[in-house]
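Quick review question:
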C-alpha cells in the first residue's frame, strides 16, 4: 500500500466522525431502498419500483463521494450501515423513508455548518450538492406517501 499524503485542509475529529455517520446513513438507505425496489410488486409497487431503484443508486453514489472526501481528509471510511428498516407494507416502508431522508437532511445541514466554520470549502460544496438531492428524495417519498 502506498503511503498516504497529508491533506492540505485540516479538519476536526467531529467533522470526520460526521462524515462517517453520513456514509453509514447512505449505505443504510441505499440497501433499504434497493430491497424495497426488489420486494414490491403489484399496482402500488409498480408505481414506485423504478423510483426506489433510482434513489438507491443515487444514495450509493453519495456514499462513494463522501468516502472519497473522508479518505482525502485522513479518515477511514466505515463499511457499516446504520440499521436497515424492512417494513411489512409499502406505506410502512415509505413512512420510514420519509423519516430517514429528514434525518439525513438535518445531519447534512450540520456537516455544512461545521465545514464552513472549519474553512473546508470542498466538503461544504459537496454536502450542499448532496443536500439538494436529499431534499428531492424527501419530496419524492412525501409525495408517494400521500398516494398510498
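Suggested answer, residue by residue:
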Amino acid at each position: 500500500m502506498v503511503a498516504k499524503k497529508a491533506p492540505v485542509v485540516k479538519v476536526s475529529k467531529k467533522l470526520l466522525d460526521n462524515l462517517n455517520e453520513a456514509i453509514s446513513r447512505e449505505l443504510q438507505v441505499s440497501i433499504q431502498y434497493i430491497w424495497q425496489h426488489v420486494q414490491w410488486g403489484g399496482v402500488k409497487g409498480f408505481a414506485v419500483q423504478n423510483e426506489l431503484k433510482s434513489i438507491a443508486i443515487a444514495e450509493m453514489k453519495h456514499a462513494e463521494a463522501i468516502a472519497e472526501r473522508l479518505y482525502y481528509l485522513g479518515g477511514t471510511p466505515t463499511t457499516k450501515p446504520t440499521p436497515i428498516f424492512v417494513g411489512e407494507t409499502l406505506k410502512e416502508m415509505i413512512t420510514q423513508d420519509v423519516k430517514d431522508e429528514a434525518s439525513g437532511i438535518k445531519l447534512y445541514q450540520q456537516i455544512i455548518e461545521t465545514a464552513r466554520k472549519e474553512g473546508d470549502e470542498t466538503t461544504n460544496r459537496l454536502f450542499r450538492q448532496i443536500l439538494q438531492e436529499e431534499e428531492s428524495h424527501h419530496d419524492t417519498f412525501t409525495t408517494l406517501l400521500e398516494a398510498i
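Why it works: The chain has one domain: 13-147. Residues 42-72 form the longest helix (31 residues).
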